[in-house]
Amino acid sequence: MRRVSFVMALVLMVNSMTFAQQIPAGMMMGWQPPVVVPESMNPNIPYAGLTQFDPFGRPFIMYNPVILGTLPQPLWVFLRAHEHGHAIGRLAGEAEADCWAAREISKVNPDLVDQIVWHLINTLGPRGGDATHGNGYQMAEVVQRCRVR
Ligand SMILES: [Zn+2]
Prior knowledge:
By secondary structure, the chain is mainly alpha-helical. It has helices spanning about 1-20, 65-70, 75-85, 95-110, 110-125, 135-145; strands at about 40, 50-55, 60-65.
């Protein structure tokens, strides 16, 4: 058991080190996660971002670089923080993860939150809605409600 979790920890560590080289610079502007979660790029996932938990209950995050390429950079940061809301905040709901992201980013970079809101309204707008995620207008409302300054 001890051996397995040591190997697993090593895999996760190497995974997160690899990610540091993969992550687009635009994703790191203005906000850093408060806790390190392994992150990687995966062009095969059907979402822009996806948080999963390993058999030990530890989170890891994947991003689809193709879908990221269709979005402006402020939304990359918002997506990244949103996934960390699932991973660190252990929030299952999409609006709750959006709220966590808005609060965390607004603590360090209120200007970036303004840019995120602008893009949610003007770039995403009526798009982005599905069974669990609101459209851009609804997400912008959540961000404005949850930002702290
Ligand atoms: Zn989500």
